[in-house]
Amino acid sequence: MGRHQPVAKTYHPPRQVDWGKSVTRRRYMKRELTSVFLIAYALVLLFGLWRLSQGEAAFEAWRATLSHPLAIFGHGLIFVAALYHTRSWFEVMPRTLPDSAMNPASITRAGWTAAAIASLLVLTFVVVGGV
Amino acid sequence: MSDTTRDRSIRIEAMRYHPDTDSAPHLQTYEVPFRDDMSVLQGLQYIKDHLDGSLTFRWSCRMAICGSCGMMINGVPQLACHSFLRDYMPGPVRVEALDHFPVVHDLVIDQTAFLNKLESVKPYLMPATERALSAGAYNQTPAQMDKYHAYSQCINCLLCYAACPQVALRPGFAGPAALALMHRYNADSRDQGWAARAEAANADDGVWGCTYVGECSEVCPQAVDPAHAINQNKANSALDFFGLRKLLSPREGAK
Predict the structure, then answer these.
(1) CB pairs under 8 A between A and B
(2) How many Cβ atoms are within 10 Å of A94's Cβ, its own excluded?
(3) A101: contact with B, CB 8 A cutoff
(4) Which of B25, B169, B218 sits opposite A15 (nearest CB)?
(5) How far, in Å, CA of B91 to CA of B35, rounded?
(6) Distance in Å, alpha carbon of B113 to nearest chain A alpha carbon
(7) Would you say the pTM of this structure is higher than 0.95?
(8) Interface predicted TM-score (ipTM) over 0.90
(9) Residue pLDDT, tens place only, B82-97
(10) Nearest to A8 among B19, B22, B116 (CB)
(11) Chain A positions in Cβ-Cβ contact with residue B235 (cut-off 8 Å)
(12) What does the pLDDT read at residue B156?
């Protein structure tokens, strides 16, 4: 455990973290918290897939549940959270990539562009597919 | 317009802890007259010279380059010489020992754990082959130097450790400065030591101990950006896990 050993008697402060202490920490907690909504939505979709495996009636019943006002409200909430998460993630994304000639703002813009193209493709698929 | 009279005063609440007599730190209040050009460090020096000689703190250069006077100032990790009393008016200004470190005496923290973490990342040049002195100096292009220069500016002030929540929660976490210095050497064209550092980097207490709060980079007085150093190495660590790092690396590893 290293060759340096403590020599002095010391006071050990309690190991606790105030997550609301600074702007950076609050931003981090919001970024992490909104990711939970993404998992929630993935679970909704997985549940739908499972219902599909049980036959058409089960799948249609699942679809009917989704049109309940509460479900629509939940989807709205998830959408807002997903948007926030996307923004907060693209903001910090430049520092997850190697130092490069690309400036941080362009990396963030590239993220938004990719997200926009992906959303557009899915939307086209849904509209053309007539789902 | 230099005002040489100390026409204003501010209350400084300093953390006191004496290992022989105290079981926990407490705050002691001092009324300190100051001029507009006085740093928090100079406020502490005024206390030591005129009010209470027993107040203990580290300092040396007074110009934000030695990294000795890091402390919590109103809850924010800062260099005491790099922050001014006038900015804390009307006060009080609370100075405490750096968060997440054992306290030796008043504002002095125990750096032992950090020294061990720093050594664990082998922060020195490790060329693949010994280079004879007669071979002369290494040459580097400005582009090669750019790859590591910002990360070489670390002054070991430990503000990033006081800022990082993961340092508080995982005592073994190598931490921002040590990992940034590891990247500094890995990114140096004269160095081939990444394989020797890989074990420390890939460990749970290495780059993966970081959850990317990013506060280390906010408080760094040298703009080292440890969060960038660490998070770009998560990709390297993942490539290493799948055995791809060796294939993609243009340089051979030193033993």
Answers:
(1) 94
(2) 21
(3) no
(4) B169
(5) 14
(6) 8
(7) no
(8) no
(9) 999 999 999 899 999 9
(10) B19
(11) 96-98
(12) 97
Helices (H) and strands (E) in chain B, counts: 10, 7
Mean pLDDT over A14-33 rounds to: 95
Chain B residues touching A7 at Cβ < 8 A = 112
The answer to which of B26-40, B89-103, B123-137, B231-245 has the lowest mean pLDDT is: B231-245
CA distance B169 to chain A (A): 6
Q: Which token pair is B182?
A: 């590891």
Phi then psi for B178, rounded to 5 degrees?
A: -60, -45
The closest alpha carbon to B180, from B196, B205, B201, belongs to B201
**Three-state secondary structure string covering A9-32:** CCECCCCCCCCCCCHHHHHHHHHH
Query: How, if at all, do strands B93-96 and B8-16 pair?
Result: parallel
Of A3, A5, A95, the CB nearest to B227: A95
Domains of chain A as residue ranges with CATH: 23-129 (1.20.1300.10)
Please, what are the domains in chain B?
A: 8-109 (3.10.20.30), 112-248 (1.10.1060.10)
